Amino acid sequence: MTLCRVRAWLPCAVVGVLLACAPPAAPAAPASRDEALGDLEHAQTERRAEAVVWIANYGGIGDQPLLLKRLRDKDPLVREFAEQGLWLLWGRSGDAAIDALMARGIEQMQTGRHREAVATFTEVIRRRPEFAEGWNKRATVHFFAGDYRKSLADCDEVMRRNPSHFGALSGYGQIYFRLEQYERAIEYWRRALEVNPNLTGVEINLKAAGELLRQKRGRTA
């Protein structure tokens, strides 16, 4: 049974571009932070979407709870923008040099240069150990390289810094699935969905893991 790749662990490089674009037929973007905060609860979908975009583009990691709440918005557009926005918040370190290293490491990872990517993200971690996304990206590289033990260790570091990181939670699930530890995979995927109920890939993987777990238990019965 094939494991569905969960987009949440490695966001698409065009997230920033998407969030820079206004929703179709959108009202004017908020003119200030106070206006954006007020519009997050607005009855009009487009106003909430614009507010989410503003927070994603100009907010900081302290605004994470605002976007986590919007993952349960009644409108799918707002939920999608909130998910993308969280990746933007997580990916900004507040240091231009660190952000440049992150961009280099992502490019190395996406082109399969795993050793170089590990070295780059290790330097990010050395310079900014409290920056959770440095650990998360290195966990992702270790996963792609097949070093699951190191990937799990880095996921642990992400969780210590950001327990709401649904990307790392889904990453745990992918690792344990590969290790055929289906119960643990299911546990972490359920935790990821508790934070972000919009992870379609995680829901698909949960069904796959549940079926394999039933088969495994059947063989040992």
Please give a structural write-up.
The protein has 221 residues and is mostly helical. The protein folds into 2 domains: 15-91, Leucine-rich Repeat Variant (Alpha Horseshoe), CATH 1.25.10; 132-220, Tetratricopeptide repeat domain (Serine Threonine Protein Phosphatase 5, Tetratricopeptide repeat, Alpha Horseshoe), CATH 1.25.40.10. The protein is 70% helix and 0% strand. Helix 9 (148-161) packs antiparallel against helix 10 (166-178) and helix 11 (182-195) runs antiparallel to helix 12. It is flat. The two termini are 21 Å apart. Residues 1-8 and 10-19 have low confidence and may be disordered.
Defining traits:
flat, 2 domains, mainly alpha, Leucine-rich Repeat Variant, Serine Threonine Protein Phosphatase 5, Tetratricopeptide repeat, 221 residues
Supply the CATH superfamily name of the largest domain.
Answer: Tetratricopeptide repeat domain
Strand-and-helix sequence, N→C?
HHHHHHHHHHHH
Q: Mind telling me the C-alpha Rg?
A: 18 Å
Morphology call: flat
Structural class: mainly alpha
Total domains, how many? 2
Q: Provide the residue-averaged pLDDT.
A: 90
Question: How would a crystallographer describe the biggest sheet?
Answer: none
Helix content: 55-70%
How many DSSP helices?
Answer: 12
Distance between the termini: 21 Å
Catalogue the unreliable spans: 1-8, 10-19
Specify the CATH architecture of the largest domain: Alpha Horseshoe
CATH class (first level) name of the largest domain: Mainly Alpha
E-strand count: 0
Say what oligomer this is. Answer: single chain
CATH topology assignment of the largest domain? Serine Threonine Protein Phosphatase 5, Tetratricopeptide repeat
**SS strand fraction:** under 5%
